[in-house]
Amino acid sequence: MKLLKTLKLGFIDDSLKDYYVRFRPYGISESKKYLELSDTLDAAKLKAMKGNADVHLGSELHDFILKIKDLVSEMWVEGSVPDNDGNAQPMTKDDLNEMPTEFFLTAARFLDGQQV
Questions:
Q1: Are 5 and 25 in contact (CB under 8 A)?
Q2: pTM of the entire predicted model
């Protein structure tokens, strides 16, 4: 059985509401990886809030986003995005590199079963 999850892109901008990306849903190992990444970031945030000078939250956040991007990219199957003239075209995996950070953060939560 091939299950896919479809994420509409309207959350990025209303002009993208008719476009989408399809993913394979997280399996147990991907969910575990996502939770571990989230826990690591939460721990870094907590240390930074307590004034721990050894924590560089900016670099922790950057690493988190790159790892989330990799995880989301692994799950990618297909999509539809606008071309330069605003016409729908099939999305390629390389098109993921043009997506904003909020796309990856939202997609990671979406694939984990959270409301977006």
A1: yes
A2: 0.84
**pLDDT, tens only, 13-64:** 999 999 999 999 999 999 999 999 888 878 777 776 676 655 566 777 888 8
Sheet-wide strand order for 5-8: 5-8, 20-23, 76-82, 88-90
Residue owning tokens 């809030």: 49
Output the DSSP codes for 21-35.
EEEPPP-HHHHHHHH
So what's the pLDDT on residue 41? 78
* The predicted structure's pLDDT at residue 44: 72
CA angle 36, 40, 46 (to 5 degrees): 140
**Pairing outcome for strands 88-90 and 20-23:** unpaired
Give the residue among 67, 57, 78 at the shortest CA–CA distance from 108.
67
